[in-house]
Structures are given as C-alpha cells and as structure tokens.
C-alpha cells in the first residue's frame, strides 16, 4: 500500500503553523522554513511532510534548517 502524499496551500500552511504569510516567506528566505514546490506556472504548494517536519522540530525545541529536508 502506498502512502498518500499531499500538498498544502499557503492558507493550509498558515492554519497548521499559526504563522502569517509574511512570516512564512521571511523564514523561507532565512532558510528556517521549507520552501514550496512549483506545481504550475502561477501556483506553489508545500509538501505535507516538510511542514510536519518543521512542526516536529519546533515541538522538540529545535531549529529547523533547509538542510534538514
């Protein structure tokens, strides 16, 4: 059985993390938040696994860095 993979919209990422849009993009620039994947010319989405890894790191009291992906 294959594991279901899901992509998240910015709105869903904001709801899951409680971060604002500006904070998410600022953290991406700093390399402390996962970057989205381009799914079409004008659309991006985040891998659920990447966002969950970031949340897990925060819950463990650790900093997440782009190299941790």
TrEMBL record:
Gene3D superfamilies, A to Z: 1.10.238.160
InterPro entries in the record: AlpA, DNA-bd_dom_put_sf, Prophage_regulatory_activator
SUPFAM superfamilies: Putative DNA-binding domain
Pfam families: Phage_AlpA
Domain of life where this protein originates: Bacteria
PANTHER family listed in its UniProt record: DNA-BINDING TRANSCRIPTIONAL ACTIVATOR ALPA (PTHR36154)
Protein name per Swiss-Prot or TrEMBL: AlpA family transcriptional regulator
Lineage, broadest ranks: Bacteria, Pseudomonadati, Pseudomonadota, Gammaproteobacteria, Alteromonadales
């Amino acid at each position: 059985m294959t594991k279901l993979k899901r992509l998240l919209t910015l709105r869903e990422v904001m709801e899951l993390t409680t971060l604002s849009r500006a904070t998410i993009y600022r953290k991406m620039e700093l390399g402390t938040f996962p970057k989205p994947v381009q799914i079409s010319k004008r659309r991006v989405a985040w891998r659920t696994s990447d966002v969950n890894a970031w949340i897990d790191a925060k819950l463990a009291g650790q900093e997440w860095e782009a190299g941790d992906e």
